[in-house]
């Protein structure tokens, strides 16, 4: 038995896994963002709920681990940022610890139990507040150490003009330190940024989408530009990885007409032509971080020599 955690900036969620088909949610508690001792105590309390001793714990975190130093980069939870978190938690909890990027866990969940079942190469894409992704091949994460593989949201590659007719698009500054990343336009905040640039209007992503679905002219123009900007780098990612399915998670994945338009635009730009949907809504709608972390932990356990 292993215990998995989905570590977010606002909440820590726990799960218990005995097999790939036996994964159940445990408690949910607020994340202690600035107190490492309290952070450890929260994990310990969730573990105690089971009344059992797990063989290991596996964590899904919105961050990446430097594969050379093993230090975690996690800006939204200061008490664990820049720590050798796996080693620190192993010392505190007396258990083996596995840490994985949340987008990687999402991709693992979709490949194992979601929309990616039956596909050799699965690219899991996140279109939430920002943009993320993870790549799974033959049931294994590509570049398991760190969580950098699959990060199609970063790199200065967005077009300088998009839409029909083309509109000029600035190279927006990205939180990663670069300019012109997909992350600056592809998530909910990016959609809002585009609407402001195109129409000088401050609307939430929900308002933009609602107006688009009603046929409002300005919102329709924004969605046209958005699809054009996002489809090309996603098609390039598919060409490079050979993915045959792209499950999408995050808040924007709930807008099925938007996803359908993105799928149509992406399939028109990939080298391999698909006569079926390629960019699809994720199927693991509840806690994919927990599921993905559990699957990773179970795979590690399965590789260990039996006593």
From TrEMBL:
CDD domains: ASKHA_NBD_ROK_NAGK (cd24057). GO terms for molecular function: ATP binding; metal ion binding; N-acetylglucosamine kinase activity. Keywords: ATP-binding, Carbohydrate metabolism, Kinase, Metal-binding, Nucleotide-binding, Transferase, Zinc. InterPro entries: ATPase_NBD, ROK. Coiled coil: none annotated. It catalyses: N-acetyl-D-glucosamine + ATP = N-acetyl-D-glucosamine 6-phosphate + ADP + H(+). It is an enzyme of class 2 (transferase). Pfam families: ROK (PF00480). Its EC number is 2.7.1.59. It comes from the Bacteria. This is N-acetylglucosamine kinase. It comes from Rhizobium hidalgonense.
